[in-house]
Design goal:
Helix content is about 50%, strand content about 15%. The longest helix has about 35 residues.
């Protein structure tokens, strides 16, 4: 059974006394040139006096100069690759003696890479006529106009309530006010609880209720949480769908001009989406099998870094949705505990795929990296985004992600009997 101790190593380092003395002399003479001692012109104070007065500072510089350099050379000589910042312990030094210290750090423990016999299936990405029709109707709904309905009748199935509301979410200091929102009764995207609370309501009616959002709800801000609403109906409307004809299609500016051409385009898009979903599911199954096969400990330093990244991305996602992070009372300790296990699994997966990429001699070319940065830049200045990512370390993380993706795609090709070139990149 792998344990955290498998990742921990310690080495003892000794810097020869002669080298220490030479470095001490060099730094002492540098201090002599810089020293300002009463009674002596700058640079003219006796070296013995400089040593006596600045002994502590001189030794500090000797240690700061020699310890990192000797530690690096020891790592190279012993072929060690620390993944955490070394902790220096038991440091000892004095005139005429070697500098001795102990360095403790984490490494990736050795493990045997096992990928033989992995198998996954790829189901055909079939698209039926009902799915194409559903996509067509979605386009019509997005192009719909709204008909105002009389305010003196209650809401019915298929109608849309115009509402304003205050929403209270646990952890927010103040309720959030929304002045206008549309809630369509009977629409598949409308939570049944909303339709139930608004059924039979008339303009001017007020409702107060709680909604328990499902854990997989698209809006992560409210997913899996209970939200309290104070709501007032301010209007009734009905969605008017445009007629499905060639004129409607031309107005979409979708690159096609007829209904049949649009159907063919939608079918092709749906097939591509399904194929991608099937391949993504196959990749996740491969990852599951890889994790099951490989039992080795993961360095805590890498897990902590990945946990921090996951939390940072989650906060950025909330901010992008308009959430005021200052209003949230977040339990950081609980959030870190929740993210630790998935972060550990993610680090382990990365280590396996990086080992696989090395064995397969895979690499990420510079033009591939730049193309991905351009894709991620989303219309921004790609060169500026590249420079910023290079400065903050994100570029190397992206290179690592692309390399792991290549390794996983190579594995997918073998596990499904397909040629590597067919899924070399995504």
């Amino acid at each position: 059974m792998a344990t955290a101790a498998d990742c921990k190593q310690a080495i003892e380092v000794e810097i020869p006394a002669g080298e220490v003395e030479r470095e001490y002399e060099r730094i002492a003479r540098d201090w002599q040139r810089r020293a300002r001692i009463p009674g002596f012109r700058p640079g003219k104070a006796p070296l013995s006096l400089v040593r006596q007065r600045y002994q502590g500072q001189i030794w500090d510089e000797v240690v700061q100069s020699m310890v990192p350099a000797y530690l690096r050379s020891t790592f190279e000589r012993e072929q060690l690759e620390p993944v955490s910042r070394p902790a220096i312990e038991d440091l000892s030094f004095q005139a005429g003696a070697p500098i001795r210290f102990k360095a403790s750090f984490e490494v990736v423990p050795p493990f045997d890479l096992s990928t033989e016999g992995l198998q996954v299936g790829l189901e055909p990405a079939a698209v039926d006529e009902a799915e194409v029709e559903q996509a067509l109707q979605a386009l019509r709904r997005r192009s719909a106009t709204w008909e105002d309905l009389p305010a003196d009748a209650p809401l019915a199935e298929g109608e849309t309530a115009v509402v304003r509301y205050d929403r209270s979410l646990e952890g927010e200091a103040e309720p959030r006010h929304v002045d206008q929102a549309f809630i369509e009764l009977g629409d598949p995207e409308t939570l049944p609880e909303f339709a139930r609370e608004l059924a039979g309501a008339s303009v001017g009616d007020r409702r107060e209720f709680d909604i328990a959002y499902p854990a997989d709800y698209a809006n992560t801000e409210v997913a899996g949480r209970q939200v309290h609403f104070k709501l007032e109906v301010t209007g009734r409307k009905r969605r008017q769908l445009p007629e499905l004809n060639d004129g409607f299609v031309r107005g979409l500016d979708a690159g096609v001009e007829t209904v049949e051409a649009l159907r063919a385009r939608l079918r092709a898009d749906l097939e591509t989406e399904k194929k991608q979903a099937v391949e993504d599911a196959a990749r996740q199954e491969l990852i599951r099998q890889l994790l099951e096969r490989h039992d080795f400990a993961v360095p805590d330093a890498l897990v902590e870094k990945q946990t921090a990244l996951r939390l940072e991305r989650g906060l950025h996602s909330l901010a992008a949705q308009g959430v005021d992070l200052d209003q949230l009372k977040l339990d950081w300790a609980a959030l870190r505990r929740e993210q630790e296990q998935p972060a550990r699994q993610q680090v382990k997966t990365s280590l396996i795929l990086e080992r696989l990429a090395g064995r397969e001699q895979l690499a990420v070319a510079e033009d591939e990296l730049r193309q991905e940065v351009e894709r991620l830049s989303g219309g921004q200045n790609a060169a500026a985004v590249y420079a910023r990512m290079q400065q903050n370390g994100a570029l190397e993380r992206l290179r690592s992600q692309l390399l792991q993706q290549k390794a996983l795609n190579r594995l997918l090709a073998r596990a499904t009997g397909r040629e590597p070139a067919a899924v070399e990149t995504t």
